[in-house]
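Look at a sample.

——
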Amino acid sequence: MAKLNVVLFEPEIPANTGNIGRTCVATGTRLHLIEPLGFRLNEKSIKRAGMDYWEDLEVIRYINFEDFLEKNPNAKIYMATTKAKKTYVEVQYEENSFLMFGKESAGIPEEILLEYQDTSIRIPMAGEIRSLNLGNSVAIVLYEALRQHSFAHMQMEGNLTKYNWK
């Protein structure tokens, strides 16, 4: 069973983190938060976006990127950045992979990205748009990684029978 990890590097917008937390609960994914955070985790906007799922979220906090690396030695980290050569569908996500996303205003710092060029990924976009919403980006990449593992630990039938859908 593939267990995946979403890492947010210095997230700034509480609603984005709340939405991402809800996605993590729905997919059985761990959420890792690298400080400093642009908000407090007890803010209403996080709870509102994460709804009543926040208490079911497996969330781990780190004081900085070095603390994250120290506590996750040998982690296979995929860095989401608009600067990557490979798209998110061109890589094979391993079990226990870490999918890392940067802060909303600036992404992942260049000095970190330089160390992870081989595992940097991007989401293709048309035109001159700078980036997608963080919550959307996480969902896109996370669901591709889960698809590659055949959604192994997830409920595949959903609520179809509840609504008599076939």
